[in-house]
Amino acid sequence: MNTVDKLNKYAELVEQSDFLQKSLVELKEKAVPDELKEQWEQIKAAIANCHAEIDAEYAPMIEACNKEKDALLEEVKAETLVAGATVKGEKMMAVWNKGRTTWDGDMLKGMVALIPALKEAMKVGEPTVSIRSMK
Fold first, then answer.
1. Which helix (H) or strand (E) holds 41?
2. Enclosing domain of residue 75
3. 81 falls within a domain
4. Residue 12 and residue 4: Cα distance in Å, rounded?
5. Is residue 53 in some structural domain?
6. I need a labelling partner for 64 at 20 to 30 A (CA). Which of 27, 50, 101, 108 fits?
7. How many independent structural domains does the chain possess?
8. Residue 41, CA distances (Å) to 12, 24, 37, 44 in order
9. pLDDT for 35-87, tens place per residue?
10. What pTM did the predictor assign?
């Protein structure tokens, strides 16, 4: 079997898997009597109401905590940048990293014509493959 045949077989298996998943969901849906579905909807609504009350009680506390946490995080980051070193606490640490060096690849490729020795510094990664659906 060549690569095209294998790719076509793979596409068929993807379609088969999708069909089986959809069939499974439909069969489960049909297996539950309508009366139970109605009761379940009422139970879900009651649960949602309970959760909404709890959410309303906790929301201001969570918002205040997150606001203070975010502000403190920004202060820690700023102070760590100024210190230029990692700062360790009891449970967390702010890790300082030096700035990353990057190179303009297009410019370097153009310079290889002028300075052939630059080509020795070039490293090319391994190719990769991704599978995509055809539209």
1. helix 34-83
2. 32-99
3. yes
4. 12
5. yes
6. 50
7. 1
8. 37, 21, 6, 5
9. 999 999 999 999 999 999 999 999 999 999 999 999 999 999 999 999 999 99
10. 0.58
